[in-house]
Protein backbone atom coordinates (compact mmCIF):
# COMPACT_ATOMS: atom_id res chain seq x y z
CA UNK A 1 0.00 0.00 0.00
CA UNK A 2 1.29 3.48 -0.79
CA UNK A 3 1.37 5.98 2.01
CA UNK A 4 -2.09 7.50 2.08
CA UNK A 5 -0.90 10.64 3.79
CA UNK A 6 0.24 11.99 0.44
CA UNK A 7 -2.03 12.51 -2.56
CA UNK A 8 -2.16 9.61 -4.93
CA UNK A 9 -2.08 10.58 -8.60
CA UNK A 10 -4.60 8.80 -10.72
CA UNK A 11 -3.47 7.05 -13.87
CA UNK A 12 -3.48 7.46 -16.78
CA UNK A 13 -1.23 10.42 -17.35
CA UNK A 14 1.81 11.11 -19.43
CA UNK A 15 4.73 8.84 -18.84
CA UNK A 16 7.62 10.38 -20.64
CA UNK A 17 10.53 8.65 -22.22
CA UNK A 18 13.13 10.52 -24.20
CA UNK A 19 13.79 9.18 -27.67
CA UNK A 20 15.24 10.44 -30.90
CA UNK A 21 12.83 10.83 -33.75
CA UNK A 22 15.34 9.91 -36.41
CA UNK A 23 16.98 6.62 -37.13
CA UNK A 24 20.69 6.27 -36.54
CA UNK A 25 22.61 6.93 -39.73
CA UNK A 26 26.25 6.70 -40.65
CA UNK A 27 28.07 9.71 -41.93
CA UNK A 28 27.52 13.30 -40.94
CA UNK A 29 24.32 13.91 -39.02
CA UNK A 30 22.35 16.89 -40.18
CA UNK A 31 22.76 19.69 -37.63
CA UNK A 32 19.05 20.46 -37.87
CA UNK A 33 18.20 17.02 -36.59
CA UNK A 34 19.76 17.89 -33.28
CA UNK A 35 16.68 19.94 -32.59
CA UNK A 36 14.28 17.18 -33.51
CA UNK A 37 14.34 15.38 -30.23
CA UNK A 38 10.82 14.36 -29.36
CA UNK A 39 9.53 12.71 -26.31
CA UNK A 40 7.44 9.62 -26.64
CA UNK A 41 4.54 9.62 -24.30
CA UNK A 42 4.20 5.92 -23.60
CA UNK A 43 0.73 6.29 -22.10
CA UNK A 44 -0.65 8.10 -25.14
CA UNK A 45 0.87 5.41 -27.38
CA UNK A 46 -0.91 2.69 -25.46
CA UNK A 47 -4.07 4.48 -24.35
CA UNK A 48 -6.40 5.84 -27.01
CA UNK A 49 -9.38 6.52 -24.74
CA UNK A 50 -8.03 7.64 -21.37
CA UNK A 51 -11.44 7.89 -19.67
CA UNK A 52 -12.41 4.41 -20.84
CA UNK A 53 -9.15 2.65 -20.02
CA UNK A 54 -8.69 0.65 -16.86
CA UNK A 55 -6.04 -1.73 -15.59
CA UNK A 56 -6.55 -5.21 -14.26
CA UNK A 57 -4.10 -7.80 -13.03
CA UNK A 58 -4.34 -11.26 -14.56
CA UNK A 59 -3.49 -14.28 -12.50
CA UNK A 60 -2.93 -17.84 -13.64
CA UNK A 61 -1.56 -19.30 -16.85
CA UNK A 62 -4.61 -19.55 -19.11
CA UNK A 63 -3.40 -16.73 -21.39
CA UNK A 64 0.25 -17.79 -21.45
CA UNK A 65 0.49 -18.30 -25.23
CA UNK A 66 -0.84 -14.78 -25.82
CA UNK A 67 2.00 -13.39 -23.74
CA UNK A 68 -0.17 -12.61 -20.73
CA UNK A 69 1.53 -14.28 -17.81
CA UNK A 70 0.61 -14.85 -14.20
CA UNK A 71 0.70 -11.37 -12.62
CA UNK A 72 0.62 -9.41 -15.90
CA UNK A 73 -1.24 -6.11 -15.87
CA UNK A 74 -3.57 -5.59 -18.81
CA UNK A 75 -4.82 -2.27 -20.18
CA UNK A 76 -8.50 -2.60 -20.92
CA UNK A 77 -10.28 -0.16 -23.23
CA UNK A 78 -14.05 -0.19 -22.79
CA UNK A 79 -14.59 2.21 -25.70
CA UNK A 80 -13.59 -0.43 -28.25
CA UNK A 81 -16.36 -2.60 -29.63
CA UNK A 82 -15.45 -6.23 -28.93
CA UNK A 83 -14.93 -8.37 -31.99
CA UNK A 84 -14.18 -12.01 -32.52
CA UNK A 85 -10.46 -12.58 -32.02
CA UNK A 86 -10.01 -9.78 -29.47
CA UNK A 87 -8.55 -10.58 -26.10
CA UNK A 88 -11.20 -9.43 -23.66
CA UNK A 89 -12.07 -9.16 -20.01
CA UNK A 90 -15.43 -10.88 -19.56
CA UNK A 91 -17.66 -11.26 -16.53
CA UNK A 92 -18.56 -14.89 -15.89
CA UNK A 93 -20.70 -15.60 -12.82
CA UNK A 94 -19.74 -12.26 -11.30
CA UNK A 95 -15.98 -12.69 -11.70
CA UNK A 96 -13.55 -11.25 -14.22
CA UNK A 97 -11.85 -13.56 -16.67
CA UNK A 98 -9.33 -12.76 -19.38
CA UNK A 99 -9.81 -14.84 -22.56
CA UNK A 100 -9.96 -14.66 -26.34
CA UNK A 101 -13.44 -13.83 -27.63
CA UNK A 102 -14.74 -16.01 -30.44
CA UNK A 103 -18.14 -15.24 -31.90
CA UNK A 104 -20.01 -16.29 -34.99
CA UNK A 105 -23.55 -16.30 -36.29
CA UNK A 106 -24.54 -19.07 -33.92
CA UNK A 107 -21.87 -19.32 -31.29
CA UNK A 108 -20.14 -17.35 -28.54
CA UNK A 109 -17.22 -18.68 -26.57
CA UNK A 110 -14.25 -17.59 -24.53
CA UNK A 111 -11.06 -19.41 -25.39
CA UNK A 112 -7.88 -19.63 -23.35
CA UNK A 113 -4.46 -19.13 -24.91
CA UNK A 114 -3.28 -22.37 -23.37
CA UNK A 115 -4.38 -25.86 -24.53
CA UNK A 116 -4.71 -27.01 -20.90
CA UNK A 117 -7.84 -24.88 -20.42
CA UNK A 118 -11.31 -25.69 -21.69
CA UNK A 119 -13.41 -23.17 -23.62
CA UNK A 120 -16.04 -21.25 -21.72
CA UNK A 121 -19.45 -21.48 -23.41
CA UNK A 122 -22.50 -19.89 -21.77
CA UNK A 123 -25.00 -22.40 -20.38
CA UNK A 124 -28.69 -21.94 -20.96
CA UNK A 125 -29.76 -18.74 -19.28
CA UNK A 126 -26.20 -17.80 -18.31
CA UNK A 127 -25.26 -14.30 -19.36
CA UNK A 128 -21.62 -13.63 -20.14
CA UNK A 129 -20.81 -9.96 -20.46
CA UNK A 130 -17.75 -8.58 -22.22
CA UNK A 131 -16.42 -5.91 -19.86
CA UNK A 132 -13.71 -4.48 -22.09
CA UNK A 133 -11.11 -5.16 -24.74
CA UNK A 134 -7.49 -5.80 -23.76
CA UNK A 135 -5.24 -3.46 -25.76
CA UNK A 136 -1.88 -4.10 -24.10
CA UNK A 137 -0.28 -6.18 -21.42
CA UNK A 138 2.60 -5.41 -19.17
CA UNK A 139 4.99 -7.98 -17.76
CA UNK A 140 7.41 -6.61 -15.23
CA UNK A 141 10.77 -8.31 -14.98
CA UNK A 142 12.95 -8.71 -11.95
CA UNK A 143 15.64 -6.06 -11.66
CA UNK B 1 -31.45 24.92 -22.45
CA UNK B 2 -29.50 23.23 -19.68
CA UNK B 3 -28.89 19.59 -18.94
CA UNK B 4 -28.15 17.95 -15.61
CA UNK B 5 -26.20 14.72 -15.97
CA UNK B 6 -26.28 12.64 -12.81
CA UNK B 7 -24.81 9.22 -11.99
CA UNK B 8 -27.36 6.75 -10.60
CA UNK B 9 -26.54 5.59 -7.06
CA UNK B 10 -23.07 6.79 -7.93
CA UNK B 11 -20.96 5.29 -5.13
CA UNK B 12 -22.68 1.90 -5.44
CA UNK B 13 -22.33 1.99 -9.21
CA UNK B 14 -18.58 2.69 -8.92
CA UNK B 15 -18.17 -0.33 -6.65
CA UNK B 16 -20.09 -2.53 -9.08
CA UNK B 17 -17.88 -1.67 -12.05
CA UNK B 18 -14.96 -3.45 -10.39
CA UNK B 19 -16.91 -6.03 -8.41
CA UNK B 20 -19.42 -7.37 -10.93
CA UNK B 21 -20.70 -9.91 -8.42
CA UNK B 22 -22.43 -6.98 -6.69
CA UNK B 23 -24.76 -6.55 -9.70
CA UNK B 24 -28.35 -7.24 -8.78
CA UNK B 25 -27.61 -7.45 -5.06
CA UNK B 26 -28.59 -4.88 -2.46
CA UNK B 27 -25.54 -2.69 -1.77
CA UNK B 28 -25.01 0.25 0.56
CA UNK B 29 -21.94 2.42 0.97
CA UNK B 30 -21.26 3.55 4.52
CA UNK B 31 -19.99 6.93 5.65
CA UNK B 32 -16.55 7.37 7.03
CA UNK B 33 -16.12 5.33 10.17
CA UNK B 34 -18.78 2.96 8.86
CA UNK B 35 -21.44 5.02 10.61
CA UNK B 36 -24.42 5.19 8.28
CA UNK B 37 -25.61 4.58 4.73
CA UNK B 38 -24.65 7.37 2.31
CA UNK B 39 -25.47 5.54 -0.93
CA UNK B 40 -27.92 2.76 -1.76
CA UNK B 41 -28.41 0.60 -4.78
CA UNK B 42 -31.96 0.27 -6.13
CA UNK B 43 -32.18 -3.16 -4.49
CA UNK B 44 -31.18 -1.64 -1.13
CA UNK B 45 -33.81 1.08 -1.56
CA UNK B 46 -36.35 -1.67 -2.26
CA UNK B 47 -35.45 -3.21 1.11
CA UNK B 48 -36.65 0.02 2.68
CA UNK B 49 -33.19 1.27 3.69
CA UNK B 50 -33.28 5.02 4.14
CA UNK B 51 -30.52 7.50 3.40
CA UNK B 52 -28.50 7.96 6.58
CA UNK B 53 -29.69 4.72 8.17
CA UNK B 54 -27.19 3.81 10.92
CA UNK B 55 -25.13 0.74 10.16
CA UNK B 56 -26.10 -1.17 13.29
CA UNK B 57 -29.70 -1.21 12.02
CA UNK B 58 -28.54 -2.79 8.78
CA UNK B 59 -26.67 -5.75 10.25
CA UNK B 60 -29.81 -7.84 10.25
CA UNK B 61 -30.34 -7.23 6.54
CA UNK B 62 -26.73 -8.24 5.89
CA UNK B 63 -27.48 -11.56 7.48
CA UNK B 64 -31.02 -12.16 6.20
CA UNK B 65 -31.38 -10.27 2.95
CA UNK B 66 -27.93 -10.58 1.42
CA UNK B 67 -27.21 -6.88 1.90
CA UNK B 68 -23.60 -5.91 1.18
CA UNK B 69 -22.34 -2.94 3.19
CA UNK B 70 -19.11 -1.34 1.97
CA UNK B 71 -16.91 1.37 3.45
CA UNK B 72 -16.69 4.49 1.33
CA UNK B 73 -13.78 4.42 -1.12
CA UNK B 74 -13.46 8.11 -1.98
CA UNK B 75 -10.27 7.68 -4.00
CA UNK B 76 -12.20 5.40 -6.37
CA UNK B 77 -15.28 7.65 -6.54
CA UNK B 78 -13.11 10.72 -7.18
CA UNK B 79 -11.37 9.08 -10.13
CA UNK B 80 -14.59 7.70 -11.62
CA UNK B 81 -16.20 11.12 -11.19
CA UNK B 82 -13.34 12.74 -13.10
CA UNK B 83 -13.83 10.28 -15.96
CA UNK B 84 -17.60 10.75 -15.97
CA UNK B 85 -17.36 14.56 -15.94
CA UNK B 86 -14.99 14.59 -18.91
CA UNK B 87 -17.41 12.44 -20.91
CA UNK B 88 -20.49 14.41 -19.81
CA UNK B 89 -18.78 17.63 -20.94
CA UNK B 90 -19.18 16.40 -24.52
CA UNK B 91 -22.90 17.15 -24.34
CA UNK B 92 -22.49 20.92 -24.71
CA UNK B 93 -20.12 23.87 -24.66
CA UNK B 94 -19.93 24.65 -20.98
CA UNK B 95 -19.95 22.43 -17.96
CA UNK B 96 -20.39 23.27 -14.33
CA UNK B 97 -19.57 20.44 -11.95
CA UNK B 98 -22.15 20.64 -9.19
CA UNK B 99 -21.20 17.62 -7.09
CA UNK B 100 -19.21 14.43 -7.42
CA UNK B 101 -21.83 12.86 -9.69
CA UNK B 102 -23.78 15.80 -11.10
CA UNK B 103 -22.89 18.46 -13.64
CA UNK B 104 -24.89 21.10 -15.46
CA UNK B 105 -24.18 21.41 -19.17
CA UNK B 106 -25.10 24.52 -21.14
CA UNK B 107 -26.84 23.42 -24.34
CA UNK B 108 -27.46 26.84 -25.83
CA UNK B 109 -26.61 26.91 -29.51
CA UNK B 110 -26.42 23.12 -29.79
CA UNK B 111 -28.27 22.18 -32.96
CA UNK B 112 -30.31 19.06 -33.56
CA UNK B 113 -32.31 16.73 -31.35
CA UNK B 114 -31.14 17.24 -27.76
CA UNK B 115 -32.76 14.05 -26.49
CA UNK B 116 -30.94 12.01 -29.11
CA UNK B 117 -27.69 13.72 -28.23
CA UNK B 118 -28.27 13.11 -24.53
CA UNK B 119 -29.04 9.46 -25.25
CA UNK B 120 -25.72 9.09 -27.08
CA UNK B 121 -23.75 10.65 -24.22
CA UNK B 122 -25.59 8.52 -21.71
CA UNK B 123 -24.78 5.39 -23.69
CA UNK B 124 -21.16 6.42 -24.02
CA UNK B 125 -20.77 7.03 -20.28
CA UNK B 126 -22.33 3.66 -19.58
CA UNK B 127 -20.19 1.80 -22.09
CA UNK B 128 -16.90 3.58 -21.40
CA UNK B 129 -16.92 3.62 -17.61
CA UNK B 130 -19.85 1.39 -16.63
CA UNK B 131 -21.81 4.06 -14.73
CA UNK B 132 -25.56 4.37 -15.44
CA UNK B 133 -26.76 7.97 -15.56
CA UNK B 134 -29.95 9.97 -15.97
CA UNK B 135 -30.12 13.24 -17.87
CA UNK B 136 -32.64 16.01 -17.27
CA UNK B 137 -33.05 18.89 -19.70
CA UNK B 138 -34.88 22.13 -19.05
CA UNK B 139 -34.71 25.89 -19.63
CA UNK B 140 -33.48 26.60 -16.07
CA UNK B 141 -31.33 24.81 -13.52
CA UNK B 142 -34.31 24.12 -11.28
CA UNK B 143 -36.25 22.60 -14.20
CA UNK B 144 -33.21 20.60 -15.40
CA UNK B 145 -32.79 19.26 -11.88
CA UNK B 146 -36.50 18.41 -11.75
CA UNK B 147 -36.30 16.74 -15.17
CA UNK B 148 -33.42 14.66 -13.86
CA UNK B 149 -35.44 13.56 -10.82
CA UNK B 150 -38.33 12.64 -13.14
CA UNK B 151 -35.97 10.65 -15.40
CA UNK B 152 -34.72 8.72 -12.37
CA UNK B 153 -38.11 8.02 -10.81
CA UNK B 154 -39.66 7.02 -14.14
CA UNK B 155 -36.89 4.44 -14.50
CA UNK B 156 -36.80 3.12 -10.96
CA UNK B 157 -40.46 3.34 -10.03
CA UNK B 158 -42.58 2.57 -13.09
CA UNK B 159 -45.87 4.40 -12.85
CA UNK B 160 -44.51 7.38 -10.92
CA UNK B 161 -44.21 9.32 -14.20
CA UNK B 162 -44.89 8.41 -17.86
CA UNK B 163 -42.41 5.74 -18.95
CA UNK B 164 -41.02 7.65 -21.92
CA UNK B 165 -39.34 10.07 -19.49
CA UNK B 166 -37.18 7.28 -18.03
CA UNK B 167 -33.41 7.89 -18.21
CA UNK B 168 -33.76 11.09 -20.23
CA UNK B 169 -36.39 13.74 -19.63
CA UNK B 170 -36.61 16.97 -21.64
CA UNK B 171 -39.05 19.40 -20.02
CA UNK B 172 -38.39 21.98 -22.73
CA UNK B 173 -40.12 19.69 -25.20
CA UNK B 174 -43.28 19.17 -23.18
CA UNK B 175 -46.38 21.21 -23.96
CA UNK B 176 -48.02 23.21 -21.18
CA UNK B 177 -50.44 20.44 -20.33
CA UNK B 178 -47.78 17.73 -20.06
CA UNK B 179 -45.53 19.99 -18.01
CA UNK B 180 -48.39 20.79 -15.62
CA UNK B 181 -49.10 17.07 -15.18
CA UNK B 182 -45.44 16.35 -14.38
CA UNK B 183 -45.26 19.21 -11.90
CA UNK B 184 -48.52 18.06 -10.36
CA UNK B 185 -47.04 14.60 -9.80
CA UNK B 186 -44.01 16.07 -8.00
CA UNK B 187 -44.12 16.85 -4.29
CA UNK B 188 -43.14 20.38 -3.42
CA UNK B 189 -40.43 19.12 -1.08
CA UNK B 190 -38.69 17.43 -4.02
CA UNK B 191 -38.09 20.72 -5.82
CA UNK B 192 -34.44 21.75 -5.79
CA UNK B 193 -33.75 24.24 -3.02
CA UNK B 194 -36.96 23.56 -1.09
CA UNK B 195 -35.71 21.98 2.10
CA UNK B 196 -37.64 19.92 4.58
CA UNK B 197 -38.56 22.90 6.75
CA UNK B 198 -39.77 25.15 3.94
CA UNK B 199 -41.50 22.17 2.32
CA UNK B 200 -43.53 21.63 5.49
CA UNK B 201 -44.41 25.32 5.75
CA UNK B 202 -45.49 25.37 2.12
CA UNK B 203 -47.75 22.37 2.62
CA UNK B 204 -49.34 24.04 5.65
CA UNK B 205 -50.15 26.90 3.31
CA UNK B 206 -51.79 24.66 0.76
CA UNK B 207 -48.78 24.40 -1.57
CA UNK B 208 -48.40 20.66 -2.02
CA UNK B 209 -46.94 20.06 -5.44
CA UNK B 210 -44.35 21.59 -7.73
CA UNK B 211 -47.30 22.84 -9.79
CA UNK B 212 -48.73 24.70 -6.80
CA UNK B 213 -45.34 26.30 -6.26
CA UNK B 214 -45.00 27.22 -9.92
CA UNK B 215 -48.36 29.01 -9.77
CA UNK B 216 -47.49 30.95 -6.63
CA UNK B 217 -46.71 34.60 -7.27
CA UNK B 218 -43.00 35.40 -6.95
CA UNK B 219 -43.91 38.37 -4.77
CA UNK B 220 -45.76 36.09 -2.33
CA UNK B 221 -42.81 33.70 -2.25
CA UNK B 222 -40.51 36.58 -1.41
CA UNK B 223 -42.82 38.14 1.16
CA UNK B 224 -43.81 34.86 2.82
CA UNK B 225 -40.41 33.14 2.67
CA UNK B 226 -37.30 34.42 1.01
CA UNK B 227 -35.57 35.68 -2.11
CA UNK B 228 -34.33 32.13 -2.59
CA UNK B 229 -37.87 30.77 -2.87
CA UNK B 230 -38.82 33.65 -5.15
CA UNK B 231 -36.00 32.58 -7.47
CA UNK B 232 -37.19 28.98 -7.32
CA UNK B 233 -40.69 30.06 -8.38
CA UNK B 234 -39.29 32.07 -11.28
CA UNK B 235 -37.07 29.17 -12.32
CA UNK B 236 -40.05 26.81 -12.31
CA UNK B 237 -41.64 29.23 -14.75
CA UNK B 238 -38.68 29.01 -17.08
CA UNK B 239 -36.90 32.22 -16.08
CA UNK B 240 -33.25 31.47 -15.29
CA UNK B 241 -32.12 33.24 -12.13
CA UNK B 242 -29.93 30.82 -10.19
CA UNK B 243 -26.26 31.54 -10.74
CA UNK B 244 -23.47 29.29 -9.61
CA UNK B 245 -23.05 31.33 -6.44
CA UNK B 246 -26.73 31.01 -5.44
CA UNK B 247 -26.99 27.27 -5.81
CA UNK B 248 -28.22 25.28 -2.87
CA UNK B 249 -25.28 23.13 -1.80
CA UNK B 250 -25.36 19.45 -2.64
CA UNK B 251 -26.06 17.24 0.31
CA UNK B 252 -23.36 14.66 -0.17
CA UNK B 253 -20.53 16.63 -1.71
CA UNK B 254 -19.65 20.20 -2.53
CA UNK B 255 -17.85 21.17 -5.68
CA UNK B 256 -16.30 24.39 -6.82
CA UNK B 257 -14.85 24.27 -10.30
CA UNK B 258 -14.42 26.85 -13.00
CA UNK B 259 -13.07 27.27 -16.48
CA UNK B 260 -10.37 29.92 -16.71
CA UNK B 261 -10.84 33.05 -18.82
CA UNK B 262 -7.45 32.45 -20.38
CA UNK B 263 -5.14 29.44 -20.42
CA UNK B 264 -3.05 29.09 -17.27
CA UNK B 265 0.43 27.59 -17.41
CA UNK B 266 2.11 28.40 -14.08
CA UNK B 267 1.73 26.45 -10.87
CA UNK B 268 1.45 29.63 -8.83
CA UNK B 269 -1.56 30.78 -10.86
CA UNK B 270 -3.23 27.40 -10.51
CA UNK B 271 -2.64 27.50 -6.77
CA UNK B 272 -4.25 30.92 -6.54
CA UNK B 273 -7.29 29.63 -8.38
CA UNK B 274 -7.43 26.49 -6.27
CA UNK B 275 -7.15 28.51 -3.07
CA UNK B 276 -10.12 30.59 -4.17
CA UNK B 277 -12.18 27.52 -5.12
CA UNK B 278 -11.31 25.76 -1.88
CA UNK B 279 -12.34 28.81 0.16
CA UNK B 280 -15.65 29.08 -1.70
CA UNK B 281 -16.29 25.38 -1.17
CA UNK B 282 -15.41 25.69 2.54
CA UNK B 283 -17.83 28.59 2.85
CA UNK B 284 -20.65 26.52 1.31
CA UNK B 285 -19.68 23.71 3.65
CA UNK B 286 -19.98 25.89 6.74
CA UNK B 287 -23.25 27.35 5.46
CA UNK B 288 -24.83 23.93 5.61
CA UNK B 289 -23.16 23.06 8.90
CA UNK B 290 -21.03 20.22 7.60
CA UNK B 291 -17.48 18.98 7.79
CA UNK B 292 -15.54 17.25 5.03
CA UNK B 293 -13.34 14.21 5.43
CA UNK B 294 -11.95 13.83 1.92
CA UNK B 295 -10.82 16.36 -0.67
CA UNK B 296 -10.40 15.90 -4.40
CA UNK B 297 -8.88 18.38 -6.83
CA UNK B 298 -8.30 18.29 -10.56
CA UNK B 299 -6.68 20.25 -13.37
CA UNK B 300 -7.37 19.87 -17.08
CA UNK B 301 -6.38 21.30 -20.43
CA UNK B 302 -9.15 22.17 -22.88
CA UNK B 303 -10.42 19.19 -24.90
CA UNK B 304 -11.59 21.72 -27.50
CA UNK B 305 -8.05 22.90 -28.23
CA UNK B 306 -7.06 19.73 -30.01
CA UNK B 307 -3.84 21.28 -31.32
CA UNK B 308 -2.51 21.62 -27.75
CA UNK B 309 -1.02 18.73 -25.81
CA UNK B 310 -3.70 17.34 -23.50
CA UNK B 311 -3.37 16.65 -19.81
CA UNK B 312 -5.98 15.84 -17.23
CA UNK B 313 -5.42 14.59 -13.77
CA UNK B 314 -7.15 14.42 -10.44
CA UNK B 315 -6.16 13.17 -7.05
CA UNK B 316 -7.80 12.95 -3.69
CA UNK B 317 -6.63 13.02 -0.13
CA UNK B 318 -8.25 11.99 3.14
CA UNK B 319 -8.08 14.64 5.87
CA UNK B 320 -6.50 13.99 9.25
CA UNK B 321 -9.92 14.63 10.76
CA UNK B 322 -13.12 16.07 9.32
CA UNK B 323 -13.04 19.85 9.16
CA UNK B 324 -14.69 22.95 7.74
CA UNK B 325 -11.63 25.11 8.27
CA UNK B 326 -10.70 27.00 5.10
CA UNK B 327 -7.02 26.83 5.99
CA UNK B 328 -6.96 23.04 6.26
CA UNK B 329 -9.08 22.55 3.15
CA UNK B 330 -7.01 24.99 1.11
CA UNK B 331 -3.79 23.41 2.25
CA UNK B 332 -4.93 19.94 1.26
CA UNK B 333 -6.17 21.14 -2.15
CA UNK B 334 -2.89 22.91 -2.80
CA UNK B 335 -0.91 19.83 -1.82
CA UNK B 336 -2.84 17.87 -4.45
CA UNK B 337 -2.33 20.49 -7.17
CA UNK B 338 1.37 20.67 -6.44
CA UNK B 339 1.58 16.95 -6.81
CA UNK B 340 -0.39 16.60 -10.07
CA UNK B 341 0.84 19.77 -11.81
CA UNK B 342 3.05 19.24 -14.87
CA UNK B 343 4.67 22.19 -16.62
CA UNK B 344 4.25 22.73 -20.34
CA UNK B 345 0.46 22.51 -20.55
CA UNK B 346 -2.17 25.20 -21.05
CA UNK B 347 -4.65 24.55 -18.27
CA UNK B 348 -8.26 25.51 -18.97
CA UNK B 349 -10.07 24.27 -15.92
CA UNK B 350 -9.52 23.36 -12.29
CA UNK B 351 -11.70 22.44 -9.39
CA UNK B 352 -12.04 21.31 -5.82
CA UNK B 353 -14.53 18.77 -4.54
CA UNK B 354 -15.33 18.12 -0.90
CA UNK B 355 -16.46 14.58 -0.19
CA UNK B 356 -17.41 12.55 2.85
CA UNK B 357 -19.60 15.33 4.24
CA UNK B 358 -20.90 14.91 7.74
CA UNK B 359 -22.69 17.07 10.28
CA UNK B 360 -20.27 19.39 12.09
CA UNK B 361 -21.58 18.16 15.42
CA UNK B 362 -20.39 14.64 14.81
CA UNK B 363 -16.79 15.71 15.10
CA UNK B 364 -16.97 15.80 18.87
CA UNK B 365 -17.16 12.03 18.82
CA UNK B 366 -13.67 11.67 17.40
CA UNK B 367 -10.86 10.78 19.68
CA UNK B 368 -8.35 12.89 17.83
CA UNK B 369 -7.93 15.68 20.35
CA UNK B 370 -5.22 17.54 18.43
CA UNK B 371 -7.38 18.02 15.43
CA UNK B 372 -10.61 19.19 16.97
CA UNK B 373 -11.33 22.65 15.66
CA UNK B 374 -10.66 24.93 18.62
CA UNK B 375 -13.41 27.30 19.65
CA UNK B 376 -11.52 30.39 18.52
CA UNK B 377 -10.97 28.85 15.11
CA UNK B 378 -14.74 28.28 14.73
CA UNK B 379 -15.28 31.92 15.66
CA UNK B 380 -12.61 33.01 13.21
CA UNK B 381 -14.37 31.16 10.38
CA UNK B 382 -17.74 32.62 11.43
CA UNK B 383 -16.30 36.11 11.47
CA UNK B 384 -14.68 35.58 8.09
CA UNK B 385 -17.97 34.43 6.55
CA UNK B 386 -19.84 37.37 8.06
CA UNK B 387 -17.33 39.95 6.85
CA UNK B 388 -17.38 38.44 3.39
CA UNK B 389 -21.13 38.37 3.32
CA UNK B 390 -21.37 41.98 4.37
CA UNK B 391 -18.57 43.57 2.42
CA UNK B 392 -18.42 41.27 -0.55
CA UNK B 393 -16.77 38.00 -1.32
CA UNK B 394 -13.05 37.95 -0.82
CA UNK B 395 -12.87 40.93 1.57
CA UNK B 396 -11.15 38.66 4.05
CA UNK B 397 -8.93 36.00 2.57
CA UNK B 398 -6.47 33.46 3.77
CA UNK B 399 -2.85 34.33 3.29
CA UNK B 400 -1.91 31.17 1.49
CA UNK B 401 1.50 31.21 3.11
CA UNK B 402 0.18 29.72 6.32
CA UNK B 403 2.67 27.41 7.98
CA UNK B 404 2.15 24.03 6.37
CA UNK B 405 1.14 21.35 8.78
CA UNK B 406 1.78 17.74 8.01
CA UNK B 407 -1.34 15.87 6.98
CA UNK B 408 -1.61 12.60 8.73
CA UNK B 409 -4.06 9.89 8.05
CA UNK B 410 -6.59 9.85 10.78
CA UNK B 411 -7.19 6.31 11.82
CA UNK B 412 -10.45 5.73 10.01
CA UNK B 413 -12.58 2.74 10.58
CA UNK B 414 -12.96 1.31 7.12
CA UNK B 415 -13.35 -2.37 7.56
CA UNK B 416 -15.14 -2.99 4.29
CA UNK B 417 -13.31 -0.73 1.90
CA UNK B 418 -12.75 -1.96 -1.63
CA UNK B 419 -9.29 -1.50 -3.10
CA UNK B 420 -7.97 1.39 -5.16
CA UNK B 421 -8.98 -0.22 -8.44
CA UNK B 422 -7.91 2.82 -10.45
CA UNK B 423 -5.49 4.50 -8.08
CA UNK B 424 -3.29 1.80 -6.60
CA UNK B 425 -0.97 -0.45 -8.62
CA UNK B 426 -1.20 -3.11 -5.93
CA UNK B 427 -4.97 -2.80 -5.74
CA UNK B 428 -6.02 -3.58 -9.32
CA UNK B 429 -9.01 -5.85 -9.85
CA UNK B 430 -8.02 -9.45 -10.53
CA UNK B 431 -9.01 -11.54 -13.54
CA UNK B 432 -8.86 -15.36 -13.56
CA UNK B 433 -8.36 -15.49 -9.81
Give an account of the 3D structure.
The complex is a heterodimer of chains A (143) and B (433). Chain A is built from 1 helix and 9 strands; from the N terminus they run E-E-E-H-E-E-E-E-E-E. With 143 residues, chain A is mainly beta. Chain B is of the alpha+beta class. Among the domains of chain B are: 94-236, no CATH class; 254-401, Dna Ligase, domain 1. Chain B contains 14 helices and 13 strands. In chain B, strand 5 and strand 6 (102-106) form a beta hairpin. Chain B is globular. The N and C termini of chain B lie far apart (48 Å). Chain A: Residues 22-135 form the Peptidase S24/S26A/S26B/S26C domain. Chain A: InterPro entries: LexA-like, LexA/Signal_pep-like_sf, LexA_repressor, Peptidase_S24_LexA, Peptidase_S24_S26A/B/C.
Treating each run of at least 4 consecutive H or I residues as one helix, how many helices of chain A? 1
Oligomer: heterodimer
> Which percent range fits the helix content of chain B?
25-40%
Return the domain count of chain A: 1
CATH class category name of the domain at 254-401 in chain B: Alpha Beta
The main pleated sheet of chain A reads as: 6 strands, antiparallel
Largest sheet of chain B: 5 strands, mixed
In total, how many beta strands of chain B? 13
Q: Strands of the biggest beta sheet of chain B: in what spatial order? A: 5-6-1-7-8
CATH architecture of the domain at 254-401 in chain B: 2-Layer Sandwich
Structural class of chain A: mainly beta
The percentage helix of chain A is under 10%
Second-tier CATH architecture of chain A: Ribbon
GO biological process, one term (chain B): SOS response
GO molecular function, one term (chain B): DNA-directed DNA polymerase activity
Domain UmuC (chain B): 2-195
Family (chain B): Belongs to the DNA polymerase type-Y family.
Amino acid sequence: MPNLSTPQPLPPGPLVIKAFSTSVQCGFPSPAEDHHVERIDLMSQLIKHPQATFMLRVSGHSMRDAGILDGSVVLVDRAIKPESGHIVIAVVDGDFTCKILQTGPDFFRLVAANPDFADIVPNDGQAIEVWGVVVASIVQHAV
Amino acid sequence: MLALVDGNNFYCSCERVFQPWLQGRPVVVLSNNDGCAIARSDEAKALGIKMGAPYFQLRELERDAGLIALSANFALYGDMSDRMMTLAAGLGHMQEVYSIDESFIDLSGIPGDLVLRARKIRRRIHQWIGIPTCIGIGPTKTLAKLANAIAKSAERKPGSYPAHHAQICHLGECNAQELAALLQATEVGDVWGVGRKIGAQLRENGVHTALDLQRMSPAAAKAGWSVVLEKTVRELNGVPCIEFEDEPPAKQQIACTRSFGHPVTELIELQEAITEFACRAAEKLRKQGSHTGHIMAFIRTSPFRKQDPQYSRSASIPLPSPTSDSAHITQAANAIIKRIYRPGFKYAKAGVMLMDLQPATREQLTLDFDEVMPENRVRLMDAMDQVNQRYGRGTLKLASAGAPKAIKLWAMKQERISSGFTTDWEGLALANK
